[in-house]
Amino acid sequence: MKLFSEKTININIAAKNKMEAIDEMMNMLLADGILNNRDRYKQAILQREGVSNTAIGFGIAIPHAKTDAVNKPRVAVAVSRKGIDFESSDGTLVNLIFMIAVPNNADDVHLKILAKLSRKLIDSAFRSKLIQTENKQEILNYLNEIVI
Would you state the CATH architecture of domain 6-143? Predict the structure, then answer.
């Protein structure tokens, strides 16, 4: 299963806040044919954010949704070297955002993605590589180590 694509990686996201970041990342997923309904996907993302903020610390946010508005599983990736206010509980800025999009019929794929992604992101050297790289292909190579 191909979870990552250069088309859904942004190494210099323009967003200044959480809502702008969510919109910008959804647009990447939509342009790549991953979403069949942007509004329903956004509703699912915001509903999940309402349960608890997906800024998990270490400068990382992992907004995610499982909905029929998604055609196939994909993880959009965004990097902000300056940091984005993702309304994290500890007030820290987010440098890495991984937006997980999974269709309803994908069983527990989103949980497997969350678990494997989280395990990799615990490593500060791995996070630093992702933040510092200037090349989408390099990020893709690092992330392709995560296999579901």
Answer: 3-Layer(aba) Sandwich (3.40)
